[in-house]
Amino acid sequence: xxxxxxxxxxxxxxxxxxxxxxxxxxxxxxxxxxxxxxxxxxxxxxxxxxxxxxxxxxxxxxxxxxxxxxxxxxxxxxxxxxxxxxxxxxxxxxxxxxxxxxxxxxxxxxxxxxxxxxxxxxxxxxxxxxxxxxxxxxxxxxxxxxxxxxxxxxxxxxxxxxxxxxxxxxxxxxxxxxxxxxxxxxxxxxxxxxxxxxxxxxxxxxxxxxxxxxxxxxxxxxxxxxxxxxx
Amino acid sequence: xxxxxxxxxxxxxxxxxxxxxxxxxxxxxxxxxxxxxxxxxxxxxxxxxxxxxxxxxxxxxxxxxxxxxxxxxxxxxxxxxxxxxxxxxxxxxxxxxxxxxxxxxxxxxxxxxxxxxxxxxxxxxxxxxxxxxxxxxxxxxxxxxxxxxxxxxxxxxxxxxxxxxxxxxxxxxxxxxxxxxxxxxxxxxxxxxxxxxxxxxxxxxxxxxxxxxxxxxxxxxxxxxxxxxxxxxxxxxxxxxxxxxxxxxxxxxxxxxxxxxxxxxxxxxxxxxxxxxxxxxx
Lengths: 231, 282
Fold this sequence. Notes:
heterodimer; A: alpha/beta; 6-stranded mixed β-sheet; two-stranded antiparallel sheet; 9 helices; 15% strand; disordered C terminus; B: mainly alpha; 14 helices; 78% helix; globular; ABC_TroCD (chain B); membrane (chain B); Iron chelate uptake ABC transporter family permease subunit (chain B); transport (chain B); ABC_BtuC-like (chain B)
């Protein structure tokens, strides 16, 4: 159960959602996207988020996908265009948009590959390309960096930063505290309830980290010590 | 064996009806079965094929077309199972178990009450050699309608089968496609009763699709191959069953299982045996 969560985020920024295992990070984004029963509302630009769902791109955790599903990289990325399709799923301009998105994430050469033959990093790049194809205003990614190589993580961050510069808002459920100051502009800290939400510079503090991760005492000084929290 | 079959095929109208019906059912069951197994709904296929039985009996009682009663009960069962799954702590396999056994029992009782020439054994295990012209035409009509629906909604069915959460997040009504599939599944179950019967329909739905799933890298390939394989095993099962005077429905099911067993070690997804000219196993 996740409760007492209320915060406002500025548009056009990278937001990290952090907290210990079981804190309710994935639950929060699923509730925001109306994927699970919940109480409360999520507004996007003064409108109910569910009413503007076409502008929302969601990438669930890799573990939630059936990676043996018979689908190629090209077909998977093209799914993003379904947001603009009619009830039969037909939409124009998908081919060009898919080729462009795959080039942006450095996966153009893999277009004909089955999804089942990709590494974790390659798969995540494909899922990001799917978001690009959708041209959504809000990107919601659930732990996109888990189990992927350093190069893929860097490539994905470069694409996401470019998206941010284009005015998109990006919410990411994230685990690696060491990279939080580098990756995000804002941070939402959860542990079964909202602990803190705000700009990284003022919110990602030792006190808030201690409260979020249930540590008895905050680190004495300096930057938050992620290794102390995880090990 | 083949000569006898084709001689009789040219001579007997009932055998022509049987051939057309069996192949049409094999094709359409293979196509729908692809989506059923990819969505993890194999048990749902089993449940709906059993749940149509009371609808069949009521149709006889009320003198309405069998397909209407059967479809109504198939949809009712799918709705009950979906509602139990969505709004309770009961898991879907439990919901399916409760629903389908109840409907099957109700169907057996109602069939017993109906004074009809239709034999319960034939409903449960099929009798493709007794297919009338009307049944054949109904099967062809339903098979054509289902194939057209799958072609029309293919992209949405692929999206909602692969990543339903993403589809839901972008505002697509995934429940609409779920129930569309359930309606098609029910219709296929109704027409399959003639060839393999309600007990064995699930095999025709699942086995060809599962065999093609072992090799397919694209859904469109899997769906087409599964339809063709379903049609082929129905044809061969009919020939074998007819010429050896054994139950055709059971022949079709066992043949499908044999094809699966032979193919299984060569699957790209199992990595047991790599074919010299096969694709790269990763």
